């Protein structure tokens, strides 16, 4: 375990050194992410200029939900996105050999090699949105709720990570997944909507089959209404299920990998 | 004249072929775009549950707006023209155009038209398939003037779309990496171009300001004409005038960037 922690820390140190070499790039990307987050909040703001509630959620409840969703997404982008995004290209080009030749778990090294400091910096802004909304709502969560919120956000990151790996893993079979990986973000749009807004087929698809709605709604509800043991246990179970599925599919795909470079 | 046109006709046909190779990729992208429509449907459906009219428009009108916007994006949006131009400059492939009697803008524009023809037709497939589901939520006004002003507006929007992508691509003469600029511009475009919410829902002063910016004319303007968010023919004609001005300005900036960029270009390699 400590071996993997050391590996990750070495990679993280390299990414931060690289960021310091390309400071201009870092600022531009941090600004880009900040702007996209503002766009999401602006949308909430514009909708609530014309209506008081959306699926029973008031403006600041919705801000809290959007903030939570952005927080999960920033962590996903910060810790995993670059590595997983590159993975599809590496499989196609044969550069994936590098990861196969490394000692240790291939999935770990291939999906955690790069971090994006600009996304991690912006996770503070997303956290700021959550805290601001909570204050506007006059919430006073106790430390158990806050701890549970943190753990649920971590579950959300793991679920998104697993779904992203599952989006890229087809590259082992069909070589190019460019259309699919780019479209992953469309799915994440669902996580900014209140669960109560989903009915019928949409509820089955985006709440039960693809838990994109649950990952943001459950932690947000914990802050708003306190810890619900049943919901929390459900989220942990879904997390284990999706992570297990991602590990299984990745390793099945790895057996199919036959380098393109040599 | 005919020989000149023939050059770009061939470029267009080659562009058509190369885009047809990626038809599955475009189809996948089109399919996932419909997920965005589901988000729109759920979010705005929930918002309209509390208020039958938002900004003076009902749910069907707002949903139609987003569907039309999606179709327009596939028909005229510049997907990755900026990156392709950037690649050609950074990789030195642009050198060949400097040695041949080919206008680089016209060459790139021919490929853009070919690509949009493919993606524009491909997005119609999932739209037709889903029509039984979404048909009852679509309302399009039938005034003839909308077609007379909307079609030239759509054409000018395509020029502005491509022109902006062309300018960003040419920035590669100066910068190694343009991705940050492009995505920052996309974020601005998504708000001020009406992709996140119809612009008329913004505060009045901001809506007025947006009407003088190029983003308004990239997509929102023709879509607003076709879907009935813009109902005054004379205001539409004034808009068409402003749009034409922006098209000329952007094309002018593109020509200037090309001239100045070439002065900096060192054409390293064989």
Mass-distribution shape of chain A: globular
Q: Characterize the quaternary organization of these chains.
A: heterodimer
The percentage helix of chain B is over 70%
Number of strands of chain B: 0
DSSP helix fraction of chain A: over 70%
- Anisotropy-based shape of chain B: globular
Task: Describe what is shown at a glance.
The complex is a heterodimer of chains A (262) and B (270). Chain A is mainly α.
Write up what this structure looks like.
The complex is a heterodimer of chains A (262) and B (270). By secondary structure, chain A is mostly helical. Chain A has one domain. Chain A has helices at 2-21, 23-50, 59-93, 97-100, 106-112, 117-136, 143-168, 171-174, 178-188, 200-209, 214-225, 229-256. The mean pLDDT of chain A is 88. With 270 residues, chain B is mostly helical. Chain B has one domain. In chain B, helix 3 packs antiparallel against helix 6 (104-134), helix 7 runs antiparallel to helix 10 and helix 10 (214-227) runs antiparallel to helix 11 (233-264). Chain B is globular. The chains are: A mainly alpha (262), B mainly alpha (270). The A-B interface holds A 25, 28-29, 31-32, 35-36, 39, 42-43, 46-47, 49-55, 176, 178-180, 182-183, 186-187, 189-190, 193-194, 196-198, 202 and B 24-29, 31-33, 35-36, 38-39, 42-43, 45-51, 54-55, 177, 180-181, 183-184, 187-188, 190-191, 196-197, 201-203. Chain B: Pfam families: ABC2_membrane_6. Chain B: InterPro entries: ABC-2_transporter-like.
């Amino acid at each position: 375990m400590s071996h993997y922690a050391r590996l990750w820390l070495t990679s993280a140190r390299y990414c931060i050194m690289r960021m310091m070499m390309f400071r201009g790039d870092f600022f531009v990307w941090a600004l880009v992410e900040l702007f996209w987050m503002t766009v999401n909040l602006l949308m909430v703001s514009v909708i609530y200029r014309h209506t008081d509630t959306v699926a029973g959620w008031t403006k600041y409840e919705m801000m809290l939900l959007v903030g939570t969703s952005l927080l999960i997404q920033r962590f996903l982008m910060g810790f995993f996105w670059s590595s997983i995004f590159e993975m599809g290209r590496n499989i196609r080009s044969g550069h994936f050999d590098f990861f196969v030749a490394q000692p240790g778990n291939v999935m770990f090294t291939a999906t955690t090699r790069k971090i994006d400091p600009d996304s991690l910096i912006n996770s503070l802004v997303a956290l700021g949105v959550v805290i601001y909304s909570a204050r506007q709502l006059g919430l006073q969560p106790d430390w158990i709720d806050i701890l549970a919120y943190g753990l649920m956000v971590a579950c959300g990151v793991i679920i998104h990570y697993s779904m992203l790996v599952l989006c890229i893993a087809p590259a082992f079979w069909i070589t190019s997944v460019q259309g699919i990986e780019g479209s992953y973000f469309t799915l994440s749009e669902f996580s900014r909507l209140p669960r109560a807004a989903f009915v019928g087929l949409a509820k089955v698809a985006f709440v039960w089959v693809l838990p994109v709605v649950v990952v943001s709604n459950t932690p947000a509800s914990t802050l708003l209404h306190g810890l619900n043991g049943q919901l929390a246990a459900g989220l942990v179970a879904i997390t284990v299920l999706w992570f297990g599925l991602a590990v299984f599919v990745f390793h099945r795909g790895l057996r199919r990998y036959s380098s393109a470079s040599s | 004249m005919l020989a000149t046109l023939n050059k770009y006709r061939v470029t267009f046909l080659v562009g058509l072929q190369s885009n047809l190779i990626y038809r599955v990729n475009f189809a996948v992208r089109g399919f996932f775009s419909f997920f965005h429509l589901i988000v729109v449907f759920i979010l705005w459906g929930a918002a309209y549950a509390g208020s039958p009219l938002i900004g003076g428009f009902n749910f069907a009108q707002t949903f139609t707006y987003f569907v039309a916007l999606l179709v327009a994006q596939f028909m005229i949006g510049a997907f990755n023209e900026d990156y392709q131009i950037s690649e050609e400059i950074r990789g030195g492939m642009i050198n060949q155009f400097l040695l041949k009697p080919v206008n680089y803008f016209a060459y790139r524009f021919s490929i853009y038209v070919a690509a949009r023809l493919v993606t524009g037709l491909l997005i119609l497939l999932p739209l037709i398939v889903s029509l039984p589901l979404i048909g009852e939520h679509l309302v399009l006004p039938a005034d003839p003037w909308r077609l007379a002003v909307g079609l030239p507006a759509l054409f000018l929007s395509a020029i502005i779309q491509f022109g902006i992508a062309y300018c960003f691509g040419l920035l590669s003469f100066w910068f190694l990496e343009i991705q940050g600029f492009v995505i920052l511009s996309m974020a601005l475009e998504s708000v001020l171009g009406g992709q996140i919410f119809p612009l008329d829902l913004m505060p009045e002063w901001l809506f007025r300001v947006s009407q003088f910016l190029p983003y308004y004319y990239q997509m929102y303007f023709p879509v607003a004409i076709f879907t009935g968010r813009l109902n005054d023919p004379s205001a539409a004609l004034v808009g068409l005038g402003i749009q034409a001005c922006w098209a000329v300005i952007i094309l002018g900036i593109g020509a200037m960037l090309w001239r100045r960029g070439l002065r900096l270009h060192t054409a390293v390699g064989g």
